[in-house]
């Protein structure tokens, strides 16, 4: 096992709420370590919709998932934090001094007074199509998220799915692609109605070829991806489409993983918290963002920001018993401005 790390707060999950926890902790002089099982920070914003616009961040009219994460990383630059990627927390145990011990999949041990679970919906990965070797051409013709929109310029693309992601990217990529085929097993979509309407308008102009009711049968290619075979859902007839790229939006497999073993109270696969400080049933363990549940809960990034702001106040109290939590406005408090290095 590597050397034990002691820190004020361990944050499980390096998505937007986890990153904003670093900011709020930094304002109070607390240091953080973030742990994420992905290979990069940003959570679902980076993994699933890095170039999809977000419209409901206060004060920001329009920002892509990647731009949002980049802004958060810029915001927390002044503060003391470390990130541990490609790891997940396998074990949590309570120590005699009111602290917690965590051990990751890389056998890295942490000791902390405060654990913030900001793991979104838990561990997740994109659902694969039901074909042989679905990842044979992963990143070379087959993808489960759009990570670089320029990659699809003047390409012939087949998009699979019936939800928001399939509809959104069919409409968006129709602006850049040479040809778009949207494949779904029925002529009934689960996404936003206005986006479906835009898609159907593009179908009527020939910008999108709507293939219903079809399902994926095969991914074609030996050394190089060459296209897909579709099967008509009713007649079972096979149709081959040659294309440059295929995008599969079949949703996510979401799993709580080791969280189930941490003895925190759950409801419908979410962690129950109070709304005073968003602490779980275990003192010193907080849950913020989409992973938590309470009356009136909304799975919005801005709600997670509110939750973690209040939770950090309690974390400070646990680290500094009897002390008043410092409070000030960043617009006028010189001490906070020094921490933010805004005058440097």
CATH architectural arrangement of the largest domain? 3-Layer(bba) Sandwich
What structural class is derived from the secondary structure elements? alpha/beta
Overall morphology: elongated
CA radius of gyration is 23 Å
With helices defined by DSSP (H or I, 4 residues minimum), what is the helix count?
7
Percent helix: 10-25%
* Total count of domains: 2
DSSP E strands, number: 22
Distance between the termini: 40 Å
Characterize the largest beta sheet: strand count, sense, and whether it forms a barrel: 7 strands, mixed
Strand content: 25-35%
CATH fold category name of the largest domain: FAD/NAD(P)-binding domain
What number is the mean pLDDT?
92
Query: CATH-wise, what's the superfamily of the largest domain?
Result: FAD/NAD(P)-binding domain
Low-pLDDT residue spans? none
Order of helices and strands: EHEHEEHEEEEEEEHEHEEEEEEEEEEHH
Q: Quick one: CATH class of the largest domain?
A: Alpha Beta
Q: What order do the helices and strands come in, and which of them pair?
A:
Elements: E1 5-12, H1 16-27, E2 32-35, H2 43-47, E3 53-54, E4 63-64, H3 65-75, E5 81-84, E6 89-94, E7 100-104, E8 109-117, E9 123-126, E10 142-143, E11 156-160, H4 164-173, E12 179-183, H5 193-205, E13 208-211, E14 214-220, E15 227-232, E16 238-242, E17 245-248, E18 252-255, E19 266-267, E20 270-272, E21 285-287, E22 292-293, H6 301-319, H7 334-340
Parallel strand pairs: 1-2, 1-8, 2-5, 8-21, 10-17, 11-12, 11-17, 12-13, 20-22
Antiparallel strand pairs: 3-4, 6-7, 7-8, 9-18, 14-15, 15-16, 19-20
């Amino acid at each position: 096992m590597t050397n034990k790390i002691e820190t004020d707060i361990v944050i499980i999950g390096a998505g937007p709420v986890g990153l904003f926890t670093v900011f709020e902790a930094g304002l109070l002089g607390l240091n953080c370590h973030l742990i994420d099982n992905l290979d990069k920070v940003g959570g679902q914003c980076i993994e699933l919709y890095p170039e999809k616009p977000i419209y409901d961040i206060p004060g920001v009219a329009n920002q892509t998932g990647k731009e949002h994460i980049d802004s958060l990383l810029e915001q927390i630059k002044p503060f003391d934090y470390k990130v541990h990627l490609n790891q997940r927390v396998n074990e949590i145990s309570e120590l005699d001094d009111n602290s917690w011990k965590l051990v990751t999949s890389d056998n890295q041990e942490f000791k902390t007074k405060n654990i913030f679970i900001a793991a979104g919906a838990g561990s997740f990965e994109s659902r694969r199509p039901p074909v042989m070797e679905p990842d044979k051409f992963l990143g070379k013709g087959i993808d489960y998220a759009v990570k670089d929109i320029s990659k699809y310029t003047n390409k012939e693309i087949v998009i699979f799915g019936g939800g928001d992601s399939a509809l959104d990217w069919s409409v968006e990529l129709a602006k850049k692609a040479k040809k778009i085929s949207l494949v779904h097993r029925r002529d009934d979509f689960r996404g936003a109605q206005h986006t479906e309407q835009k898609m159907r308008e593009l179908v009527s102009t020939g910008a999108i070829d709507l293939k219903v009711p079809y399902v994926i049968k095969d991914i074609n290619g030996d050394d190089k991806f060459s296209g897909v075979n579709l099967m008509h859902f009713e007649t079972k007839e096979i149709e081959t489409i040659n294309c440059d790229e295929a995008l599969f939006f079949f949703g996510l497999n979401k799993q709580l993983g080791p969280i189930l073993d941490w003895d925190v109270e759950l409801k419908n696969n979410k962690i129950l918290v109070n709304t005073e400080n968003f602490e779980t049933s275990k003192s010193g363990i907080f849950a913020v963002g989409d992973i938590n549940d309470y009356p009136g809960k909304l799975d919005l990034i801005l709600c997670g920001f509110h939750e973690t702001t209040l939770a950090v106040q309690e974390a400070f109290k646990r680290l500094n018993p009897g002390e008043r939590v410092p409070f000030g406005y960043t617009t006028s408090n010189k001490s906070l401005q020094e921490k933010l290095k805004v005058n440097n």
